[in-house]
Amino acid sequence: MIVELGHYALVLAFALTLVQCVLPLWGALSGDERLMAIAPPASVTTFVLVLISFVVLTIAYLNSDFSVLNVLQNSHSAKPLLYKFTGVWGNHEGSMLLWILILVFFGALVGLFGGNLPKDLKAATLAVQAWVSAGFILFLLATSNPFTRVVNPPLEGADLNPILQDIGLAIHPPLLYVGYVGFSITFSFAVAALILGRTDAAWARWVRPWTLLAWCFLTLGIAMGSYWAYYELGWGGWWFWDPVENASFMPWLAGTALLHSAIVMEKREALKVWTVLLAIFTFSLSLLGTFLVRSGVLTSVHAFATDPARGVFILGLLCFFIGGSLALYAWRAPMLKQGGLFAPISREGGLVLNNLFLTAACAAVLVGTLYPLALDAVTGEKISVGAPFFNLTFGPLMIPLLLAVPFGPILSWKRGDLLAASQRLYAAFGLALLFTLVTFWAWGMEKVLAPLGVGLAVWVMAGAVSEIVTRVKAFEIGPKRAFSRLVGLPGSAWGTATAHFGVGVTVLGIVTASAFQEEHIVTMRPGDTVQLAGYEVTFDGAAPRRGPNYTEEVGHFTIRQAGALVTELDPSKRIYTARQMPTTEAGIHTIGFSQLYLSMGESRGDGAIDVRVYFKPLITLIWIGCVIMSFGAVFSMADRRLRIGAPKPAARRKTAQAAPAE
Fold this sequence. Notes:
Layout: H1 2-20, H2 23-30, H3 33-36, H4 39-62, H5 69-74, H6 81-86, H7 92-113, H8 119-143, H9 168-196, H10 201-232, H11 243-268, H12 272-294, H13 308-332, H14 347-379, H15 387-404, H16 407-410, H17 418-424, H18 426-443, H19 449-472, H20 479-487, H21 491-515, E1 518-524, E2 529-532, E3 535-546, E4 550-561, E5 564-569, E6 572-576, E7 581-585, E8 587-591, E9 594-605, E10 608-616, H22 620-637, H23 650-658
Antiparallel strand pairs: 1-10, 2-3, 3-4, 4-5, 4-6, 6-7, 8-9, 9-10
Helix pairs in contact: 1-4, 1-8, 2-8, 4-7, 7-8, 7-9, 8-9, 8-13, 9-10, 9-12, 10-11, 10-22, 11-12, 11-14, 12-13, 14-15, 18-19, 19-21, 21-22
């Protein structure tokens, strides 16, 4: 009976979203405050109902209730408790329910904490959010019901996909979905603003915290997914340009552009049309990612479903939401007033340059992802677009962007002085040049581009520090006053500098791990030793071991340096009993920011096995940089100015003060 309760709660949530998507919007357009007041409690109640549904499905998994088809297909009684819980979203139906839960959660947050929003904008935003929620709840109920019963359930389930039985999958999807789905609220804000004709600096300030929140979690989700693939799949790589990886990366690029564009709109009331369009595009790319993962149009380790009926339904939702919002944009955009003018050399100009490169990079990834699918649909020809294409298109766009990053925050608003900004960055340039020369000295001319990449990363990091030093005037006033100014800097200043520093850290990790890694793929017998980056890797032998729902062959390796024991690693090859599927468990030893990585391959007889041995210098900086970027978003969200309305321009304020009292 409890399973039916979850199903009924989902049906009630759908009915309530139908009410929420009509009446509050009608009230916003007609000025009826009673109808507008329906939106906040409706959004909170919808969230509670979907939460009940999600909890019910979770209980079914924890109890191994194989009378529920979804549990039968994706769980097993011998599976560890943690993976029974994470198995809830380790499949199409459960992950879609989590997707919807986060979708309505963002609506509830606006309903509860959007008290500083104008009533009409709040009601219209929640109504648009309800339209999106209603579409996806209907999709779940009509094509992917997670509560479908089995008449004569078997005693045992089919188990969860083995590669998903990992702690990384307990963290990665929820983080990714909060970011992925979180951009829905910026989409709703944009569509509501177009409906009401309200696009001004205040709108940009209201949108920024939600964009920051979604961007923060999407950054963490992508980083966690990258690290999971790195250690779980046994390939030793951290990014593969997989179409589904790209599907989450594209909203991140568009969201990054949206963050910077919203700053210009808030400060100067410029780029209004572009900022609203970016808000629409960012969530549209999230919807595109949902279509790619769940339609069956591609095969990937990330893909959840291959049912064409589901794909057609999601395609219909895409056409409705993306097509409808763009049609509304085409109708309303010419009516939007343009903002203030600014010189090309200015902070606004730097942010526009940022937007140009980010959107061009996003377009390059979009083309590389969709072109093979389009070609297959039109001609039947199958091609693969891999790393060479993306490296040759995406990389060159990032280089000028990273070169420009330190200049943007130092330039003045409206009209800047490029020479003065360059003078403030002398120390950053000198440090970057020093690291470039040191890298050339250490590695020679064998890899010319790598030292330049190291210098570029240091340039970005040092530029972020220079931004803070410039703001507090550290060399112009005494240490005491400089420290006082440092403490008093607004959260957005710390956020910008921290995020930019994190970008530099990630770039440094990418360059060093890609250019300077050492790799050996060898067949080893017990007692064999491989020399790698000054380390001696000895294979001591392999032995079988049984886990709760798998068997594995575990290799034992001893790592020494100059004869001294460093560590011992135990990589393995597992076979999961229920599905008879193999997985690879890598052995990883972290040395500072670098890692020694071992992965076992096929057995060759006589105790011999194939082994991949890597030394990856500074590779952990890739993910540490992403965490630092996320802290930058947190610092920006802590800025009190984002919790109050945007200030009125001086002229408007004077007019309001001069108006006679009624």
